Amino acid sequence: KAKAAKLRDAPFAPQLAKVADRPPKGGQWLHEIKWDGYRLVTTIVGGKVRIWSRNAIEWTDKVPELREAIAQLGLDNAAFDGELIAGTGTQQDFSLLQATLSGERQGSLAYALFDLLHLEGVSLEASPLLARKELLAQLLKEPPRHLAYSSHIAGDGDKAFELASQGEFEGIISKRADLPYEHGRS
Predict the structure, then answer these.
(1) Residue pLDDT, tens place only, 20-59
(2) pTM
């Protein structure tokens, strides 16, 4: 389902979740940590990295360490979706993130990437999530400092939620492994 496409040098609307009381059941679901940070989307067009908030406000100059880390991947064209975090990305680390961005404290920032939507002239949006995540994991096998792959648990949402709770994370995000990327709330 991947197809040749030209990537626009512009922000894109990220896929957003709906709130649920419990994780969905079934092997077709992937469950990821719900990081407590700021959602960022990134494009690389002609080797130039640009980073935006989920509301299409440019953040490229606010997070130069992320821009440089993404540039170290050596890609000419790509699009990523992820979360800017400080510390380990737990609820307790959110204030560290805010203080670091305002210059009040010196915390280490990281960009936890959980989706790859475009890679070197190929749009991956229509491809199944699991295939996109597998490509992203390969790309981030030895990530530059400040970049991290946001892994998942396949099928067992209750286990994923228990691990997230033990780690004091905000929760989990459950996504269908077999579906394409849908911009907006789904």
Answers:
(1) 888 889 899 999 999 999 999 999 999 999 999 999 999 9
(2) 0.92
159 given a catalytic annotation: no
Torsion over CA: 148, 154, 44, 93 (sign): negative
C-alpha distance from residue 183 to each of 43, 67, 112, 118 (Å):
15, 23, 19, 14
Nearest to 87 by CA among 52, 36, 53, 160: 36
What are the CA-CA distances from residue 84 to residues 27, 59, 72, 89, 149 (Å)? 29, 11, 18, 8, 12
List 1, 6, 18, 34, catalytic entry:
34
